[in-house]
Design brief:
This protein has 317 residues and is of the alpha/beta class. The chain has eleven helices and 13 strands.
Length: 317
């Protein structure tokens, strides 16, 4: 009986330790962007879904998870709506050339920094950039940095022009055959295209189709930016595929300007890099592509402790 009682107390101790460890790890924050020459190297995920909408997590939890995954910026892009930035503008980043649909007040920013466990110095990271995944029967397009929704019924070229009119950038979302039947006239107006996406794993021809589309766009639009995105809804982790942005400033403007200039490198789940060879070389020399998300090993240890403790409690009851 004493052995059973001791085992039960040990099980409870494991669960408690796991909960305490998880709470401590929840404050993990990605290291600040590295400086490479004249640029800040911002690690970003350009295709993330949020609640309310077609994502599982609200923006503040996405921000925490982004930090745990070593991301400096995420683009919140729900299908054909922008409820999250309209309802919770204080959580979204804004500056002089883009940002939240309703720029947050100073007090809202202060509350956000406090809720995310951050101080008041420097840029608030991760940047949460408002967007819309413009969803049509012909294609999906991530409109990054816009302030109001884009009408998905617009003609192809007019849709991209409407995004640009709001100071945003247009990124082709998972442009494989089943999702992309946009006109050739769109290609020259795209600012970026996803070339690294979970489809490279889940679809047998995904890698080839994404690479072929990017080659096709690049032929008529040499400055198009390669983009890596997780297309997170509720399962695939943030940053599973990611984008390294060579930005002149750690702001929404800096990110958007870098996309327009094509200063990005995309990385897929296997670590393959896509982009300008010079930028890839700079990225490799910086060591940023090899960075492990903060505390990732201890997260697994904490989860294992909780699982062992709960299993022990169940089997002892």
């Amino acid at each position: 009986m004493a052995v059973v009682r001791a085992a039960r107390w040990l099980s409870w101790a494991l669960v408690a330790a796991a909960a305490a460890g998880g709470s401590l790890l929840d404050t993990a924050r990605a290291a600040d962007p590295k400086r490479v020459g004249p640029y800040h190297l911002i690690v970003a995920d350009f295709h993330v879904h949020a609640f309310p909408g077609d994502g599982a997590l609200p923006p503040w939890e996405l921000a925490r998870e982004a930090s745990r995954r070593g991301l400096h910026a995420i683009v919140v892009s729900n299908h054909n709506q922008m409820l999250a930035p309209k309802i919770m503008p204080g959580l979204f980043s804004a500056d002089e050339a883009g940002g939240a649909a309703h720029p947050p007040s100073r007090e809202a920013r202060r509350r956000t920094r406090r809720s995310l466990g951050e101080g008041g110095h420097g840029p608030r990271l991760p940047l949460l950039i408002p967007a819309q995944e413009v969803t049509t029967p012909r294609f999906h397009l991530v409109a990054v940095g816009i302030t109001s929704t884009i009408d998905w019924r617009l003609p192809d070229v007019e849709m991209i022009d409407a995004i640009h009119a709001q100071g945003g950038v247009a990124v082709a979302a998972h442009p494989v055959g089943r999702y992309w039947r946009g006109s050739d006239a769109m290609l020259a107006r795209l600012d970026g295209a996803e070339v690294a996406h979970p489809l490279t794993e889940s679809l047998a021809s995904g890698r080839d189709e994404l690479s072929a589309f990017f080659t096709r766009v690049h032929a008529v639009n040499p400055g198009v930016a390669p983009i890596g995105s997780s297309d997170f809804h509720m399962i695939a982790p943030l940053g599973l595929c990611r984008t390294y942005v060579f930005a002149e400033s750690v702001t929404v403007t800096g990110v958007l300007d870098a996309i327009r200039a094509g200063r990005t490198v995309a990385e897929d789940k296997q670590g393959a890099l896509y982009g300008d060879p010079t930028l890839i070389q700079t990225l490799n020399q910086s060591g940023a592509a090899a960075m492990v998300p903060p505390n990732s090993r201890w997260v697994w240890v904490s989860a294992a402790m909780a699982l062992i403790g709960l299993l022990a409690l169940i089997t002892r009851v």
